[in-house]
From TrEMBL:
Compartments (UniProt record): Cell outer membrane
Topological type in the membrane: Multi-pass membrane protein
Protein name as it appears in the record: Ligand-gated TonB-dependent outer membrane channel
Biased composition (Polar residues): 87-97
Keyword Iron tagged: yes
Span of domain TonB-dependent receptor-like beta-barrel: 278-711
Length: 753
């Protein structure tokens, strides 16, 4: 994208030029550091928190995140109870399949209904929402730490549309104290090519620090035609300004422009014959048959441009108090194209245009009194639709082109709004450390005014209302308001300086699901024939709740740590898309569920230069009751493990260093999964091995630090099902599947000076 390059390259160049000529500044420790047992163990697990938390530092992000370095979920794939899958080897197809999670934590999908990717936050701000292109817009080279919170949530964590599965928080890498430039080039299998450049100004005489970055990424799909991505341009910046010792202002921004062609999912029958269909994908040529040409690769793609900016203003109001204000904004614009076998009565291609914004503010006041730490906070969030979708256009295939066939869906919506005040306290009593909090969350859903679409022309969404379409009252609904109290309690007890026990309880939530609207529109005749209105379906929905109990421990020494955890959770108001045999339609309902299990991760420096990290988890996540549909049919699913949720996972990662060289093999074992809630489609277990080779040379040719890397992903070229496109109640025969990528080889060269 030329205008993006023209805007960002001068910024990076300016910062880099200043980095070359600036005088070195005094090194200052960052305000928050990534902790670890040792430098060779970059994963840190629960050193002080009562809740279940695991943190990855820059070294772990670089190793676990793979060559793509764009998808934070991929960097978490070696952690306990985290099951991440990708349709491509680099984690670049993060929005494939659109609107469905490719990652689960403790068996639960990392999305809330109506807002995929909603469990991810940036500096505790909900800036990575969807639908749209916001799934992975931050280059991981600009991320200082990734933290996963599981179970009970502290009141200021997991802000957004939901946190029942947990929270993944990204902490930005601040501008460096000293000037410098970092340049990295990756190239690999399937024409993978990625360039990353970052320049840091160092601390200027005005107490200002700046960084600017730019990256370009492209790769072919490993099966079929098209790119994944065809292109990805990304630019970021950061600014830190100190005003004396009491006031600090931070500002961060990112612009991301990306296009990619989707991978074709497999049916259940094809997934059972993976040896035959592993390379099956969309058609590379048009045939002249519309029923076949809906599977043409260029009719199944997406493109989005995203821009996000947020600030952090910190004011030290006294020696024992601090005020922080974090305003944020995100804009997303683009489209999905999807070939469909039945669209308004015939095969066609649907175009879903998206153009929406979100904004909000997180404010906190921290102070100390009576030997107790207090936090008072307030979060406000407002978001334009979708979801649910505001417009769909239908097209027929005419030769090698698309011919407009009408609007398939059209509506106007108000905004989704959240208000959430919270309070937290923390105090230490000898060897015991206690914390408690309470959060009040209010959700106001958008109202929906639908319009009849007959005879409307092929114009933009904003222009179509100039033609005064008639309101469709039976497909319109009003706004709804929900509120809930979310308590939290945590306790740790120090057995010794290095050993401790911990317990936490907390109530988490998911916002009301929003899928009923498009489901009703697509199956309207069946609902109307049964006398079921959209308002009836809408009124049945409510937010989800979970009560979470974690009991854990941490044992550590100078060169090792072990962190076991037991957990139990009950869930109410869980959104499920149950198939109603009386209506012949699948639609959202609410149900109860429970989750329980055990997990452990450990790190160890075995010998000089040899370090080991391992994780094991057992996760059970099941529906608690059979489901009664609106047509009065009974679906007997109680006690069944939800789809795409392996009970057993094991991960192992080893690094051996010899001088400037290092070798890092890794292995991930994923146990059996099911493709449906009735547990009929069994997916076999599998193990994937990766290998990373690295060479470091400090002060190479008196220029800077040189790093050479060679990575082998899926070393043994294992064929397996990676992504399972199934909701937690998926019926037999309706799930789709995405094979995992084959052996992939990637080379990396970087220079830091």
């Amino acid at each position: 994208m030329r205008y993006l390059q023209s805007l960002l390259l001068p910024l990076v160049g300016l910062v880099a030029a200043n980095a070359v000529r600036a005088e070195p500044a005094i090194q200052e420790l960052p305000p928050v550091t990534v902790t670890a047992t040792a430098e060779t163990l970059p994963v840190s697990a629960n050193e002080q928190d009562a809740g279940t938390r695991t943190e990855l530092g820059p070294a772990a992000i670089r190793l676990f995140g793979g060559p793509g370095q764009t998808n934070p979920q991929q960097a978490l794939q070696y952690l306990p109870s985290v099951n991440f899958q990708s349709a491509d080897p680099y984690g670049l197809s993060s929005n494939q399949p659109p609107g469905n999670p490719s990652m689960r934590i403790r068996g639960r999908p990392t999305s809330s209904p109506g807002s995929p990717h909603s469990l991810r936050t940036v500096e505790d701000l909900p800036l990575t929402g969807a639908p749209g292109g916001g799934a992975a817009i931050y280059d991981l080279e600009n991320i200082q730490a990734l933290t996963v919170y599981k179970g009970a949530m502290l009141p200021d964590k997991g802000l957004g549309f939901g946190n029942i599965a947990g929270n993944i928080n990204l902490r930005m890498r601040r501008p460096d104290e000293e000037p410098g430039v970092f340049l990295k080039q990756d190239f690999g299998s399937f024409d993978f090519f990625r360039t990353f450049l970052r320049g840091d100004s160092g601390r200027l005489p005005s107490d200002t620090r700046l960084f600017g970055s730019y990256s370009y990424t492209t790769a072919d799909k490993w099966r079929g035609s098209g790119g994944s991505p065809d292109y990805r341009h990304n630019g970021g910046f950061g600014l830190t300004q100190d005003f004396g010792e009491s006031v600090k202002l931070e500002l961060f921004g990112v612009v991301n422009d990306q296009k990619h062609h989707d991978f074709r999912p497999l049916t259940e029958i094809q997934a059972r014959q993976l040896g035959r269909f592993n390379d099956f994908d969309f058609n590379s040529r048009l045939s002249g048959n519309p029923a076949r040409d809906i599977s043409y690769y260029d009719f199944n793609r997406q493109a989005f441009t995203d821009a996000s900016v947020f600030a952090n203003l910190e004011i030290k109001t006294s020696e024992t108090s601090r005020l922080s204000l974090k305003p944020y904004y995100w804009h997303d614009e683009g489209f999905y194209l999807l070939g469909m076998p039945m669209l308004q009565g015939a095969p066609g291609v649907r175009r879903w245009d998206i153009n929406h914004d979100l904004w909000g503010l997180l404010g906190k006041f921290d102070f100390k009194g009576w030997d107790t730490d207090f936090t008072l906070g307030y979060w406000y969030h407002e978001q334009e639709p979708p979801g649910p979708p505001t417009s769909w256009k239908a097209y027929r295939i005419a030769g090698d082109d698309l011919r407009f066939a009408g609007w398939a869906l059209l509506n106007k919506q108000s905004h989704h709004i959240f208000h959430s005040p919270f309070v937290a306290v923390h105090r230490q009593f000898g060897s015991a450390d206690l914390s408690a909090g309470l959060r009040y969350v209010v959700q106001q859903t958008a109202s929906i005014t639908s319009y009849r679409t007959a005879n409307l022309p092929d114009v933009s969404y904003s222009e179509v209302f100039d033609y005064r379409p008639a309101v469709d009252p039976s497909a319109s609904v009003g706004s709804r308001r929900f509120s809930d109290w979310l308590p939290y309690f945590g306790a740790t007890y120090a057995l010794s300086e290095n050993h401790s026990l911990r317990f936490s309880y907390g109530r988490n939530f998911n916002a009301m699901p929003l899928h009923q609207y498009p489901t009703y529109i697509m199956s309207r005749r069946a609902f109307e024939a049964a006398g079921v209105t959209l308002q009836q379906l809408w009124n049945q929905q409510k937010p989800g709740q979970s009560d979470n109990f974690d009991l854990g421990a941490r044992f550590s020494g100078d060169n090792w740590f072990v962190a076991p955890t037991l957990y139990y959770s009950t869930e109410r108001g869980k959104a499920v898309t149950a198939f109603d045999p009386e209506l012949g339609v699948s639609y959202y309902q609410t149900a109860r569920a429970r989750a329980y299990g055990a997990e452990i991760d450990a790190g160890l420096d075995l010998l000089d230069g040899l370090s080991l990290y391992g994780a094991f988890s057992y996760n059970r996540y099941e529906l608690s009751d059979d489901i009664r549909t609106a047509g009065n049919a009974l679906l007997r699913v109680a006690g069944h493990q939800v789809p795409d949720s392996p009970e057993v996972e094991g991960k192992l990662f080893l690094t051996y260093r010899l001088g400037n060289f290092s070798i890092s093999p890794g292995m991930r074992y994923i146990g059996e999964r099911y493709g449906d809630v009735e547990n009929r489609m069994r997916l076999p277990s599998y193990a994937i091995a990766d290998l990373h080779l690295n060479y470091e040379h400090k002060k190479f040719a008196e220029m800077g630090d040189l790093n050479l890397g060679l990575s082998f992903l899926n070393v043994f070229d294992k064929q397996y099902i990676a992504v399972v496109n199934a909701r937690d109640d998926q019926r037999p025969g309706t799930t789709t599947y995405y094979p995992g990528a084959p052996l992939t080889v990637v080379g990396t060269v970087s220079l830091r000076f």
